[in-house]
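Section: Multi-chain targets

For targets with more than one molecule, the full set of components is provided together so that the structure can be written out for the assembly as a whole rather than chain by chain. Components appear in the order listed by the source. The example entry contains three components.
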Amino acid sequence: MTAEVADGAILTARDVWVGVEVGGALKPIVQGGRLTVPRGGILGLVGESGSGKTQFVRNIMGLSSLEPGLMSGSAVYALGDQPPLDVLENIDAYSPFRPPTGDELIPQRQRIGWGWPLWRRRFRKRLAALRELGVGFIFQNPTGALNPYLRVGQQLGEAVAVARPNANKAEIREGALHWLSEVHLKSSDATLALYPHELSGGMAQRVMIALALAAEPKFLVADEPTTGLDSHIRREIVGLLHRILREGELSGIVISHDLPMIARLCDRLAVMFRGKVVEEGPIAALGDPESPNHPYTRELKERAEDLAKGRHSMRREAGESPDATGAVAAAGCVYRSRCLVHKVGMVDRTKCATEGPSLVEVADNHRVSCHVEEIDVLRDLALVSAEYRAGEIGD
Amino acid sequence: MTEPLLAALGITKTFRANRGLLSLGPKPQANPVLHGVDLVMGPGEVTGLIGESGSGKTTFGKCLLRIVEPDGGTIALDGQDWLAVPKNELQERRARYQMIYQNPYACLNPGLTIGAHLRETLAVFQQVKGAEATEAVRAELARFGMADKVGSYPGELSGGEKRRVSVARTLLTRPRLVVADEPTSGLDASVKADVLDAMLSARDAETAYLFISHDLDVIRFVSDRVLVMYRGRIVEVMEGETIDPSVPHHPYTRRLFEAARADLPSAEEQAALRAAQERNPDLSRGCPYRALCDVWAGKGSPDDACANELPALVSLGERQTVACHELSQGATPPAPDPRPPAFAAETPELS
Amino acid sequence: MSALGRFKDGAAADVLQTVLRWREYDYRLIFGSLTVLVLVVFRVWAIFLDVLTMEVYTGGSAGGRFTASVARVAPNCAQAPGYLLGTDQNARPLGLTLVEATEAFFEPALLSCAIALVLGTLLGAVAGYFRGGLLESGTKLLLTVVASYPRLILVIVAVGIFVASVDNPGGQLGLRLAMIATFLGLAYVPTLAFAIYQKVGAFQREQFVEAARAHGLSHTRILGYHILWANCLPVLARHFFYLFGYFILVETSLSFLGSHYGVPASTPSWGNLVTGCDLGSLWAPAFVAPAVCIVGSILGLTLLGDAIGERFERRRG
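Its structure, encoded as tokens over all components, is:
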């Protein structure tokens, strides 16, 4: 089974399913996830908490912390000088569940035979190959992700030694100080001597960025890099990341729920809603008011703008609670209870209720998963939304 | 002039680190957190207290309600001397002055359903029990859009939902003052507005809010007055139309307004931030904000007032007071750039 | 892998997968619940047997009453063929004796559990909640002192003193059992109190307690309802079952030691049966049956305690 590799992409993930077994049934987390990271470009993965974005990326990087439940798909890394490597190759042979085929809704159990305890070992061998190529990860909770028993200098030194295995102590120390100043921290021995619990949130996040960079990766993943930080530090970190990603010519993924940050930092966009990727396209699709976005992307954009302008009391529907989380395996489109297009009736409602939409290409390299027949409906969604808010249309 | 709901003057607090009887090593330092903070609020007002993590704002909120006892100052709530109330009476009076904690999980007992939490509040404070209480709980949760979650445990709810439950629990006591610590932090951007909306629409006209936050850009739209705190001191108070980036402000306030700009910091800004790390002014005298102040970076002479004298709060007009030597001398600080749009192109505004 | 790969699609792999899925079922809960069910059924049956003879038997000895009830229920036991388990050393059907033996431990175990739970919770909760003072240190000191005595020895010594100071040690069975129960309960208090102390201490430090105080709730309410009732019931349930099983162990051990310590020889008790049987063959039902009962009930109760504790913890998500 050869996996698909997109042109000029450093990472191509297709048809990724992730789930965990809870009490005999499978709880799906990612359903048919799809990602393309262009070489030299940054992909922004947007979604609310519970949409599965963190697990999606962790799985395709081989950092899954879940018990075996469901794992299938393909994630091909084409890092230039070596043949493309599919990290998830054959992983579904060892997974107790398989993704639904045909008319099935939920993942089914499958026979996996005697070899199933060995799935992790096989996985790890592939990851060792991946690690050679240099992948850096910036975790979400900075003080939690640093080793509390080692000083900052020791941890940074380890990372520097990964990139330069032959360096002596003085060179390692210099490298550590260099990376400290790169992330706007005081580059002195006093900073190197701090323990993680002595760092403030902003400092710990910067140390984590330095750690990820010190290993000189070619591919960087930042998971919610600014959540939980104070607002002015947030802007500084975003600027830092932007400079580092540009200067180092890194490819990468930035996961966030902060839409304006993604708009500034990334070249491509992927939007996830409750386990499914609903939109994938260039970042210009976010800024252009006429672009055919998925209604969910439009909703996120509007909420971000409302927040910035101070419009807090929005007409909230009696439908789903806005922060219902978690993937569901059900018939039809999972977004329809909040979908503006569905509410104003510009789409065939029976189709939305029975058939799950798949990603269709609406513009050049821009895919949206929606049942609308006319793309122009999505293009005009900004106007429709304004009218709906004003109460002129809709029920 | 109506009597103010809350008049807190000169609140100070220092955390002393205790050493055990047998421990060796240097004596741990005392940590002064609040240096004489004043706050006056009227009934039904919404006030914002803005500051970064570690500025002492949470401690101030707790001192106001005597969850932590302040070391100095006076607090008058509804005209009564709050600090003089004896401990055994304190608990009974707490119903009218409530606090919503920052960490949403931390407010709720993980072993009780949220219905049980709300029923308990009704039983203890409103003496409503039985079927009537169950109905009232269901109605209250329905107001927050969570009527189907009555039997859920806090562990099953998302962050935004947990926060709304603590808001519901607080408002059930019909309080006069609610101190909300970081009401929107840690939530997804799309949920922040919902939580604020829930808090403001569900209250009585008499309930006053004190929003403690680091996010000026979210709080400024809902507040009648905003106080800015830096390292345990109030550096600015703004009211009404002065809560706007186009008006001259204390350099720290300006920095907070700029934090919400959607564009990236320019190369010069980044270089300035990097250089600021290397500066090491002596913070025991003079204005404590010198370390990061961009106005001071331009001057930097040791004879200046900024280096020697702590600035006092001076009023800059009817609705604004600032503690800055530069501004109180009438100097005009650099005007902030106009806010660039959130995304690359602006969406069309409809009339 | 190729040799194993051949089995990938076979029925054997299916069976293996199904078997490994059975780890979802909590065997401890099943076994423990069965044990409790059996004990309760036995106890009810024993009460029924006693009720049968209430109007005819006027003597004071429990053993005598049992013999009279057996005579009513199974008059020809010594001669009747086919009794599953044969007879015990007093020529009574072994099965009925095993059932009647529950009288020796069931209610006293409940008494000792009650004492331990009430006192242990009180001491542990108070020490864990009001920390940093004489109350905490004093309670911990007291509990440590009591815990430093081995529990069984404490009970034996207490019973021994009782025996030495009373005229008719053979009689007054009820009082003796009550004494054993009380002393065992007291001896178990430190274990329970420390468990509660840990739990309450951990919860007291959580922020929701501070939030509840800020909300205006009293210490009594927070400790009683929020901490103990909402969060500590699993601990109490676990220790209830542990102690019940432990009491069975103590009672059977004391009865094994002889009439002075536990129940008299004529009164049915599992420990008695083990002592009194004729060890002609180790597989004699008179030896195996009570032994199985003792081990089975203690094991079942302990496992049930574990399982219930875990199940309640997991529920909170």
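The radius of gyration of chain A is 22 Å.
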